[in-house]
């Protein structure tokens, strides 16, 4: 990635986000041009000021010159303000559009992408990189609009006074070219590095804030602070180098200007001493060149600024250009109606080199409850991820009533499932919002029914604001059992034909478990239900039990079949019986 791509990046930004604002941008550019040209008018006033007013002593010229100069500054005041307001607004609007597009796109990207890109780093791209970019392009536009016009206007004045003097003033320009190119590459690399470090810093912050209790309990405060500080030091180094690189060009312009002045002073000064030129001419020329100096430096600075922006654009585009691999098909098939039969055939799935499912075959009959049991790491939760297409297998078929899951639109497919899992994702909103989610037109009766059904009503009275109590970040204001009941209420309200329960009652005590189990049993009636449960007490009532081990099904049948068989299930059962989780009838013991 070298600067050869810079024009492409600029074109992308223009077409995608700026072109639609061309009207305010054109007006802003007009204002900038007026602001820039006004300096030329001011410089050209020096000639009548010196020659007519000071040297000839013409009083009428004093007033004309004064009025023009005053007019110039009034005009500048109005145009510079207008231009800034217009630009600030376009910068904000286009940044907001870009952020919204990034968020939309990020939500479509697969689990693999999100595993490779931690949340903090993504937040930094959506927030930090867009902010860096928004600031820079408006600066660049101001530079081009105002400063470029200033420089042209001022050089026009200088040329009219004496084209030879102008050439002499530009004697140092060739010195600029090759260092400028080097500086650009350097700045882009440093800016990219600094943005990457910023991403790592945000990741650290995200992890520390989310793991605050773990940090405190393991006394990691110092360790985390040191790690963060090391990143901060690296960032200081990268930013300082980028700033030094950026400052390189204006510095070169300083040197160039010095040489120009020296040349003009010697060459022009001699002509004035010899009476070939007037003092007014020299002053007009001198003012024009002096005034051109600042905008010229700023223009020089733009190349560096642009390189920093390009580093951010590259990072933003890298996200937007990543295509999700898990997509809706081009011509989706309608989802099956009612509770479907779920069929998984010969599925192989690996995460990197780790083979998680090795030829999995599993059938969950329509409208019945199938329990999946097996040691942790066997791949049980992965089955749920496959059904809802959070991940696709490398090979094999997954069908719902014969329709492959990959043939349906993703939205239609996911609409078929209600998932209640051990790590319920609650949002930092009210309990009501967490249950209703984005569903429109939920009546109070429906809501009351699910609150009772999921036993949310039981703990609601103890909450200060009832259903309008906040759930806290990630649901932290609730206990594990309360969170699970909220998730069950969500599932009840959702009323989907397939129910996936992943350790849905694991965070409940045995009394609450019995109560919630009743709610789940009612919920699963008439639906195809898959249950993952560690406690075998919760699965014994299932129509079928499937035992998984190392990514394969090793046994299946009813509780009684499997017990009679004396295989893995019977062993697991005996173990739970022995450690006291179950009583003689295979039911959970009180208080366990
Ligand atoms: P179970 O639910 O039976 O405990 P899982 O289906 O959660 O098992 O996980 C099965 C295996 O897949 C585990 O060994 C786990 O380490 C691995 N695994 C799950 N998700 C990922 C992932 N995103 N990346 C890498 N490995 C994963």
Please provide a brief summary of the model.
The protein is α/β, with parallel strands linked by helices and 592 residues long. It is built from 20 helices and 10 strands.
Describe this structure in words.
The chain folds into three domains: 5-320, ABC transporter type 1, transmembrane domain (ABC transporter transmembrane region fold); 344-413 and 500-507 and 527-581, Rossmann fold (3-Layer(aba) Sandwich), CATH 3.40.50.300; 417-495, Rossmann fold, CATH 3.40.50.300. The strands form two sheets. Strands 6-7-8-3-9-10 form a six-stranded mixed β-sheet, with helices on both faces. Strands 2-1-4-5 form a four-stranded antiparallel β-sheet, with helices on one face. Helix 2 runs antiparallel to helix 11 and helix 17 (480-494) runs parallel beside helix 18. It has helices at residues 6-18, 22-44, 46-55, 59-108, 111-116, 119-161, 163-169, 177-210, 212-217, 221-273, 279-320, 380-387, 410-415, 431-436, 444-453, 457-460, 480-494, 510-524, 559-565, 568-578; strands spanning 342-351, 354-364, 369-373, 395-400, 403-404, 417-420, 498-502, 528-532, 544-549, 552-557. The two termini are 61 Å apart. The protein contains 20 helices and ten strands. The model has no long low-confidence stretch (mean pLDDT 87). It has 592 residues and is of the alpha/beta class. Strand 4 and strand 5 form a beta hairpin. The relative contact order is 0.08. It is 62% helix and 10% strand. Adenosine-5'-diphosphate (ADP) binds at residues 111, 115, 351, 354, 356, 376-382.
